[in-house]
Amino acid sequence: MSDATDPTPDAQEARMRFIYTLRSRGVTDMRVLQAMEKIDRSAFLTGLFRERAYEDTPLPIACGQTISQPSVVALMTEALDVGPRDKVLEVGTGSGYQAAILSQLARRVYTVERHRALAKQAQGVFDALGLVNITAIVGDGSHGLPDQAPFDRIIVTAAAEDPPGPLLAQLKIGGIMVVPVGQSDTVQNLIRVHRQETGFEYEELRAVRFVPLVEGLG
Ligand code: SAM
């Protein structure tokens, strides 16, 4: 298992090129760039895909799912504007990479995945990397995580037809949710939701393409 904090010189160089790519794609938040430099994406991949960890592309993981494109992970993290006291919910653990990036910025991260095998694999990587402030949970994340609600920040990494009602309800006043919204087989809109005292404010950020948010367990 690669160490999250102690890369070899070759890995260090690959990560520096990676950060350059992220900056060229519009990522400017230094805290996000530092987290992306520190967390080794190859730890969340298996087999030959590990060698492609620092390409700015989505890659296959188990259960027919994908690890997201790094620049999209970075831009979604930036849009979430996570602070060190925040409790964050991620829906769609997948490989666990996005949750690991969030763990560098937040106080606590809960990540929910409908495929048991993915949640188990991701928790194993968190444990191996010493990322003690993340918990991976098996479940249908479209219902949120009522036991741990409310959340300062919520990020959904699968496409919903609309921002799920239970997730809106579990967002703190003053909180932010980032969610891809649209039909699953087309390009979706990345939406940022701000919860105000008086209601919800919706902002369209950019086009993205995610696998669908699916009901029930995998
Ligand atoms: N964030 C992931 C990462 O860093 O690797 C990538 C997420 S992948 C694009 C989308 C994930 O959402 C898949 O693993 C899929 O199984 C999961 N998913 C889809 N619907 C879900 C639901 N209702 N609850 C929880 N997870 C769900």
UniProtKB/TrEMBL annotation:
E.C. number: 2.1.1.77
Annotated CDD domains: AdoMet_MTases
Any one cellular-component term (Gene Ontology): cytoplasm
Location in the cell: Cytoplasm
Principal cellular location given in the protein's record: cytoplasm
Database matches in InterPro entries: PCMT (IPR000682), SAM-dependent_MTases_sf (IPR029063)
One GO MF term: protein-L-isoaspartate (D-aspartate) O-methyltransferase activity
Any one GO biological process: methylation
Highest taxon of the lineage: Bacteria
Keyword presence, Methyltransferase: yes
Homology family: Belongs to the methyltransferase superfamily. L-isoaspartyl/D-aspartyl protein methyltransferase family.
Name listed for the protein in its UniProt record: Protein-L-isoaspartate O-methyltransferase
Organism listed in the record: Roseibaca calidilacus
Gene symbol of the encoding locus: pimT
